[in-house]
Write a structure and sequence with these properties.
The protein folds into two domains: 2-204, no CATH class; 209-281, Alpha-Beta Plaits. 66% of the residues lie in helices and 10% in strands. The protein has ten helices and four strands. It has helices spanning 2-44, 50-62, 66-81, 87-106, 117-137, 145-155, 161-180, 182-204, 219-230, 257-270; strands spanning 209-216, 235-240, 247-255, 275-281. Strands 2-3-1-4 form a four-stranded antiparallel β-sheet. Helix 2 runs parallel beside helix 7, helix 6 (145-155) crosses helix 7 and helix 7 (161-180) packs antiparallel against helix 8 (182-204).
Length: 294
Amino acid sequence: MKEKLIQNNKIDITRIAGVIKEYIYIIFGTFIMSVAVLMCFDAAEVVVGGVTGLAIIFKNLFAVPMWVVNAGVNLPLFLIGYKILDKQSFVRTLVANIFLTIFLAVIPVYNILTGDLLVDIILGSVLMGGGLGFVFRAYASSGGTDLMASLINHKIKHFSVPKIMAIIDGVIVIAGVGVFGLSKGIYALIAIFIVTKVSDSIVEGPGRAKLLYIISSQPDSISEYIINVVGRGATRVDVTGAFTEHKKNMLMCVVSSREMVKIKQKTYQIDPKAICFVGDIREAFGEGFTRYRG
């Protein structure tokens, strides 16, 4: 009995340490993101999407502090999303957004630009991608377009979250082009590419895609999440345990690194006893990935 209590305490301590580490990731990630926004993208007048991109536009047009825009846009989204999002994601995303808003308000701005716009954009993109990667590793997001897309997807199921995010961010980037010019918009596209690559590398290595095998007693709920929320396809395979001889469904899907993190989290919320294997895919062809050109 005593050994069992000690074992349970060890499990609790390990779990608490893991949660603390994830919140440290959130704080560190949002700090780096704030530095990228304040000292690189805002200083260079480049809008890479998201609420922070919108904040850069409002600051330059109407002299509204960026932290005010970030808080003002996200507050109603969190009020709406309170009853829609799962508790863990909601709390962590709320914490991330609070810290991002605070850092945007209090971090002193220094001139770290080199004068070479391309170099400055690369610097900002690496910082932003790194910050986002740490936030994503903690099963959170910074709110903004992620949260907005999730709320819209809750009402419009046939549009996946990534597609909705792409539309919203695209509108913000186009607005940035209208304010700062076409050349800055081209640099924004370069920045978005680098941010995506760096954040993916932080989350789960530099692989182009991830192959997920999920064995669960609740494949319907998991596949519904993959298809309707993440916007990816999934294949079911009938499997039988060699030892137990129990029959189950195995789900197989190819997703991005960021999507893989979300699917893993949701899988174990639905079925804590699920078995999940993750593999690297060197190349992925087809819908949502690279088009094959023979």
